[in-house]
Specification:
The chain is of the alpha/beta class. The chain is built from 9 helices and 12 strands.
């Protein structure tokens, strides 16, 4: 029997910036609608020196000062959120890297979604290898929701569900239906494909129409022929005044390529609308990433 898709635990990394606070507002409202637990995590850089005496922390006094300051800020944040939302809320401080912190929480707390603040439209050249956003998208073991700093809504009434590749279509459909239900919203199903892929893409598109109909979801649908799917999807999102675009981790086989001007980077650069990147958590949990050195939590590009 197929398990029902739910969002029961949400993680939000914060550096206490306006960008992160904007994403926090969205995450808190989302947690309230889904009756989900919200975990707010702040990471503190820890650097080590390895010598004859073994592995030693550099600047332990400064690290402790940062931890004390972070605890004060998290306590204030928790008080404010409890007064406003009365959520199942937990705050955490980690000295691991942001990716390792998130993946540890995914394992220990069964996290379903990571919400991150982003700076919105970016220049492709600035989407750099080693940025926190890139590393989280590359290595986090569950779905990621990117919230542009300019997005000031707290709900997703208009959901754009593109169908262009077969990857994660069922999960994308489940999440579209779930979000439409929790936000009293509707779904725009958009089939896009070039001439070479039209037959296969139309088949998947029709299958998704049937899935939405069987689940009594409110939706509109259209199919467009395109040689630049990212451009068509971004244009449709603007025209339909979409509040969120649902993509898949494997929407582009080469999206993780650093230099390529690929589909995923085009989407980030072409729209200022939240992107939900769907990942199959169970599949990804089988592939543990190497523990690496921590980055700071400023999340520059795209967040």
């Amino acid at each position: 029997m197929k398990m029902k898709t739910e969002i029961k635990t949400i993680v939000l990394p914060t550096d206490f910036s306006n960008l992160a606070n904007n994403a926090l507002n969205v995450a808190a409202e989302m947690a309230k609608r889904h009756q989900a637990k919200l975990i707010v995590v702040h990471t503190i850089n820890t650097y080590y020196m390895v010598g004859r005496g073994g592995k030693q922390v550099i600047g332990s006094e400064l690290i402790q000062e940062n931890m004390d300051l972070a605890k004060t800020k998290l306590d204030e944040l928790q008080t404010n959120l409890n007064e406003k939302y009365n959520l199942d809320l937990e705050t955490k401080i980690s000295t691991e890297s942001i990716v390792d912190s998130i993946n540890d929480l995914i394992l220990t707390d069964q996290v379903d979604l990571v919400v991150m603040g982003t700076s919105g439209e970016q220049n492709v050249k600035r989407f750099i290898l080693g940025s926190n956003s890139y590393n989280v998208l590359l290595n986090a073991n569950c779905s990621i929701l990117l919230i542009p700093e300019s997005f000031k809504k707290t709900s997703f009434k208009r959901i754009l569900f593109p169908v262009r590749v077969k990857h994660e279509l069922d999960q994308k459909a489940d999440l579209s239906i779930l979000l439409a239900d929790k936000n009293n919203g509707d779904i725009n199903l958009l089939g896009v494909g070039d001439i070479d892929q039209m037959v296969e893409c139309k088949k998947d598109y029709i299958e998704m129409k049937n899935t939405l109909s069987l689940n009594s979801a409110e939706y509109e649908s259209e199919f467009q022929l395109s040689h630049d799917n990212a451009e068509i999807i971004a244009k449709a999102a603007i025209e339909k005044q979409s509040d969120i675009i649902i993509l898949a981790d494997e929407d582009e086989d080469s999206w993780k390529s650093f230099m390529a001007d690929n589909f995923f980077k085009k989407m980030i650069n072409s729209t200022d609308i939240p992107l939900l990147i769907v990942k199959s958590k169970l599949d990804r949990l089988k592939n543990n990433t190497d523990r690496d050195m921590g980055y700071d939590l400023t999340m520059p590009i795209p967040g």
